[in-house]
Amino acid sequence: MLYQIMFFNPELSRMRFAKLNMESATIFAAIFFLMNVSEISDDCNGMMRRALAECSWNNCSSKTQRELCMLLRRVQCCHHMKFYDGAIVLSRVFFMDITKFAYSFVNFVKIGYNSKGQT
Predict the structure, then answer these.
(1) Cα 95-96-98 angle, rounded to 5 deg
(2) H or E element that contains 21
(3) SS3 of 57, please?
(4) Which residue has the higher pLDDT, 13 or 28?
(5) What does the pLDDT average to over 12-33?
(6) Which end of the chain has fewer surrounding CB within 10 Å, N or C?
């Protein structure tokens, strides 16, 4: 889709070009939303961790202390959304990496297209 936008063909109608642009913007917005939700989830997890560590849980009953310790243990790892058993971790940094890769790929194809003498 980015390829079609970058190499705007005059035979392509303005409506089709606008549709391609809107589809691209929608896809990027959806991906950013997913990455941002993952980041917000991790931020909330960090706030929970700090709140549990700073509360005076040692003044509570032993049962409550045990439950708070178990809860504290659960919130100590990061809570970004992960795919493929942690190989892909969704975050804003990953979104920027995807965006940079897409931009670099389109520029690479564009350079190759222009070096063949076609404009």
Answers:
(1) 65
(2) helix 14-54
(3) helix
(4) 28
(5) 83
(6) C
The token pair that represents 71 in the structure block: 């809860």
Q: With a cut of 60, say whether residue 1 has pLDDT above it.
A: no
Report which of 2, 62, 52, 59 is spatially closest to residue 27, judged by C-alpha positions: 2
Q: Are 72 and 113 in contact (CB under 8 A)?
A: no
pLDDT, tens digit, 9 for 90 and up, residues 40-83: 888 888 888 888 888 887 788 888 888 888 888 888 877 777 78
Tokens of 43: 């931020």
Tell me, what amino acid is at 35?
M
Judge whether 57 and 64 are in contact, CB under 8 Å. Answer: yes
- Is the predicted pLDDT of residue 113 greater than 80, yes or no? no
Output the DSSP codes for 66-119. Answer: HHHHHHHHHTTS----EETTTTEE-SHHHHHHHHHHHHHHHHHHHHHHHHTT--
3 state SS of 34: helix
| The model's pTM | 0.66
Q: How far is CA 18 from the centre of its chain?
A: 25
